[in-house]
Write a structure and sequence with these properties.
The chain has one domain. Helices cover 36% and strands 23% of the residues. It has nine helices and ten strands.
């Protein structure tokens, strides 16, 4: 009798974030007011690091979309018995391959690919905000981490307590206010499918958050009813964002099929445990 293929999955230890947004805002507000210029500069530097990996992330997202499409169409089926070729996939030989696989396994266990949208200098994007208010506020540590033979910019949500290893090591967290949007930036998947709109999170600093609040106050019926064009100009301290509400527009059929990412905000932004933070420390690369 053929045995069913058994798949072992690493168990990622994830702690739930205490949903206490008002307390976080009170703790962060004083620092933001006293050091607003420094925070803006730090965020622009962080955005530049995010932009280095954005193209790779978009390619990975496209591959994930293709896999999802295959599953939905029923084109991919799992055989109960593994073929001879498939049975070799679990076997990794050689010191280099083993080291690379271990690094990739650990990092992929402790980081999540968050569907976020970012701007480069000169970028213009069109958004539909999915709610009048932001969906969450978090403090995140940004750092370069070596994984699988490459160095990538990663962000980890701060534990906001004395057990946070990153805080103990002097990695200052930054406040990020998270909005959920439908991003109308089109792209083409590797299989040739064209995607016209995708569900994304957009993390902003306090300054950008205040600007969005003013726009919301001037729009009838709230942000979600409008398509808003957003343009970024400049870099670091000279960066500005301009917002143009274009028109009221009901949800399209394509938008209605997008995942409801607002419900998954805790899943994407949950912090890792102190033990997992300690395992990340040796892989952190300091860039001068």
């Amino acid at each position: 009798m053929a045995k069913k293929k058994r798949k072992l999955k690493p168990k990622a230890a994830v702690e739930e974030v205490e949903d206490d947004e008002e307390e976080v805002e009170e703790e962060v507000e004083e620092e933001v007011e006293d050091e607003e210029e420094d925070d803006d500069e730090d965020e622009e530097e962080a955005e530049e690091d995010d932009e280095e990996d954005e193209e790779d992330d978009e390619e990975d997202d496209e591959e994930d979309d293709e896999e999802d499409d295959d599953d939905e169409d029923g084109d991919v089926e799992m055989d109960e018995t593994a073929t001879e070729e498939e049975s070799d996939n679990w076997l990794i030989t050689g010191s280099k391959a083993t080291s690379k696989a271990l690094d990739k396994f650990k990092i992929s266990t402790y980081t999540k690919r968050v569907p976020e949208t970012w701007f480069r200098d000169g970028d213009t994007k069109r958004f539909r905000f999915l709610s009048n208010e932001h969906v969450a506020m978090v403090l995140r540590h940004g750092m370069h981490v070596r994984a699988g033979g490459s160095v990538r910019w990663q962000k980890y949500t701060c534990l906001r307590n004395s057990k946070c290893v990153f805080c103990q090591q002097g990695f200052e967290p930054m406040a990020e206010i998270i909005y959920a949007v439908h991003d109308f930036t089109p792209y083409t998947q590797k299989n040739g499918n064209k995607v016209n709109v995708s569900a994304k999170f957009w993390p902003v600093n306090e300054k950008r958050h205040r600007e969005l609040q003013k726009i919301r106050e001037n729009l009838k019926n709230g942000l979600p009813k409008w398509i808003v064009k957003v343009e970024r100009c400049g870099e670091q301290q000279k960066t500005t964002y301009t917002f143009w509400p274009e028109k009221k527009k009901p949800l399209s059929d394509e938008e209605k099929l997008l995942p409801k990412i607002v419900a998954d905000v805790k899943k994407y932004y949950a912090p890792i445990t102190p033990r997992e933070q300690k395992e990340i420390l040796p892989k952190i690369v300091q860039k001068g």
